[in-house]
Amino acid sequence: MSEPTSAPELPAPTDRRRRLVDITPLRRSPAFARLWIGATVSGVGAQLTLVAVGLQIYDITRSTLAVSLVGGISLVPMVIAGLWGGVLADAFDRRLVLIISAITGWLSTLGLITLAWIELADGGHVPVWPFYAFTTINAVAATITQATRSSVYPRILPAGLLAPASALNGIAFGIQLTLGPAVAGVLVATTGFAWTYTVDALLFTAGFLGILSLPKLAPLGETSGAGWRSLRDGLAFLVRAPNIRAGFLIDLLAMGLGRPFVILPAVGALVIGGGPVTVGILTACAATGTFLTSLFSGPVRHVRRYGLAIGGSVMLYGGFVALFGLVVGAMQTGWFGRVGADIAHVNVVALVIAGVALAGTGASDEVSAIFRTTMMLTAAPDGMRGRLQGIFTVVVTGGPRIGDLYMGTLATLVALWFPPALGGLLIVAAVGVILRVQRGFREYDAADPSP
């Protein structure tokens, strides 16, 4: 079996005044530092492609529903990839799994580059389905990579540094979501889709080098292989882990009901105005909230009631999502000015308030992510971390795909403002019920981690 897990180290009294992020994981583990830097740089490129694909599909189809299908089509393959990727991470050398999945993702980006150059040469006549195919392959590879990379951290860091490492990952994600969408909006508007995808392919190199620099990470003990038995064992462990399971459910609710990004192309083109630049700004606002929360995450080592921290932050997330929906609704009903602003005109008041709301979603989601991730990594044994990370990755990557379908469908059937306004209120209500019913999760103590 794997080594026993340990509780996070309690911070020394002299550390309690720390406000800025704790960078001890970067100093203590060169392997973590290289992996973190590489993932940060390559993640910026991944965000370039994610935003550009949405903009290009909307440019081809003028349909928010068509944009939402990017996530909907890849949902089932991602679920399978997350579960299978977690099994692979527990059965084989995790470094090797990372190398193969990263190369697969890079090849799918090359496919998007080819499509974009063909469209440019052919005067805009390119079918949409190849974009769905390549983005699905990319999503599958990213799911396996994310599940495996997260399960690596407890092998290269002490247990007491996992919470600060999660906060550092939040900074990386904030940088990715701040720079990636903002740069994507500018690149698409100035150089086109082909060069935007090409930049992603070039930035991939940094992430690949970070993976190559890892030591071999073979399983620590006896494994049950990479078959159905291993997956069943992982699912059976999750059934016996009510705290981890509650964290998964809360995140699934937040992502499935409160991800408004799929409607941003329509908001930028038809409501607030500004087109791709507005899309980049609003997406970057969410990332700024994530980044600032991680930057001032020093106090996370002093928090012990993880369940309350997760629940409270996600309820706040729902409130910010509802606020964004109300802003869009106010624009569509004429409260903030002329409805149907075109690309050349931006309603600054609406843009600012919407940006603040999305920054709030990024900040509150990051608080939840830090404690959910740390709870899972400290409460589960190493031999189960890959499979749990696989299931967790299905939740954190599959949930937004469900959210894309939810937002795109209701926005098409009702109005752009309706799904975020409704979804935000449903999140607040549902999480409140979970905190009331799940006493063990509500009273979770990091000094005595229990799955």
TrEMBL record:
It comes from Lysinimonas soli. It is found in: Cell inner membrane. This is MFS transporter. The keyword Protein biosynthesis does not apply. It comes from the Bacteria. The chain crosses the membrane at residues 35-58, 64-84, 96-118, 124-144, 156-175, 195-214, 263-296, 308-331, 343-363, 384-402, 414-435. PANTHER family: ENTEROBACTIN EXPORTER ENTS, INTEGRAL MEMBRANE EFFLUX PROTEIN-RELATED. Signal peptide: none annotated. It is a multi-pass membrane protein.
